[in-house]
Design goal:
elongated, transcription regulation, alpha/beta, WH-like_DNA-bd_sf, Arc Repressor Mutant, subunit A, D-Maltodextrin-Binding Protein, domain 2, eleven-stranded mixed beta sheet, activator, single chain, 12 helices
Length: about 325
């Protein structure tokens, strides 16, 4: 298996036609057909279904496509990293973040990287913690910002960079008298919180996983309510005064800044969770990754110092 085979395979999969891939790559069609056939022989599996309309990927072809994209990206980045070890970082870096982390870090990270390193392209995605681990293991992202959950972290290198406080967020416009009684309070105990229904992700995700640990430790079980898909939808529901959200301040800081949400810190015990920067242990740490990590920590320090992300810096 070589890079040429992977490029021919990926271009054919993208265009769904060997003839179209031949024109796009300016390579003879029989050469592409032969390289794909060699690749299928080496893998011991058919990658394409061929008919008069062109080609489409088999199930194994779809599976291999993800690996091929990751391998080609890493090969290109490795070449850049060697060539530019003493120069300005360049290339593409894919980063996955949980939705609250992406909410507070994505824009300042993107804008600062664009200013500092114009030849760097960041590809940011957001998702639940266990999905991010899956993406990292599959090679679809180069690093993730997440918190502990029940995922198997074998082969994953983790760096604790922050410990965030967990709050209850309440819409200030609420007409619910029970919710109104919480407005302006600095604290609520875990025992008191059990009297209320709260929005929280399920146990596969880091927030639901963390809450389950506290419930087992205290013997107190909260009333869980599943979020409405994307974070923004649940935030709108809470802002309008219809529910309570269990979350770090990173999830709603922008709404609190304009006075639409109040928050109450949870104590006895204090709820908090680690935030980690995770990479695959078997993949090299490139010059680009080092530069982005450094700027990422700078951004985290800034939003923490501004009081937007409540918690404690690690390291």
């Amino acid at each position: 298996m070589n890079k040429k085979q992977l490029i021919y395979f990926l271009k054919t999969a993208e265009l769904r036609s060997i003839a179209a891939a031949s024109r796009a790559l300016n390579v003879a069609q029989p050469s592409i057909s032969q390289q794909i056939a060699n690749l299928e022989h080496q893998l011991g599996s058919q990658l394409f279904i061929r008919d008069f309309r062109g080609v489409c990927l088999t199930e194994n072809g779809e599976r291999f496509r993800r690996h091929a994209e990751s391998i080609v990206r890493q090969m290109e980045q490795a070449k850049l990293d060697i060539q530019q070890s003493e120069a300005e970082p360049a290339g593409r870096l894919a980063i996955g973040m949980t939705q609250p982390i992406g909410n507070i870090l994505a824009v300042p990270l993107l804008t600062s990287i664009e200013k500092l390193y114009p030849n760097v392209e960041l590809d940011l995605s957001a998702g639940l913690s266990y999905r991010l681990v899956e993406l990292l293991k599959a090679g679809d992202v180069d690093m993730i910002l997440t918190s502990p959950d029940s995922s198997d972290m074998t082969g994953i290198q983790q760096e604790k960079i922050f410990c965030e406080k967990i709050f209850i967020a309440i819409g200030r416009a609420t007409q619910n008298k029970t919710f109104q009684a919480l407005l302006g309070r600095p604290f609520i105990t875990f025992q008191e919180l059990a009297e209320h229904e709260v929005f929280v992700t399920d146990q596969r995700d880091s927030l639901g996983y963390m809450l389950r640990q506290y419930e087992q430790k205290t013997g107190i079980t909260l009333k869980h309510r599943p979020p409405y898909g994307q974070l923004m939808t649940t935030l709108q529901y809470v802002t309008d005064g219809h529910g309570l959200l269990l979350a770090p301040s990173s999830a709603y800081f922008h709404i609190k800044k304009i006075g639409l949400i109040d928050d109450v810190e949870i104590i006895e015990p204090k709820l908090q969770r680690d935030v980690m920067l995770a990479t695959h242990a078997d993949r090299p740490k490139t010059n680009l990754m080092t530069a982005v990590r450094r700027q990422l920590l700078t951004v985290i320090n800034k939003v923490h110092q501004e009081g937007l992300w409540q918690g404690t810096l690690r390291g």
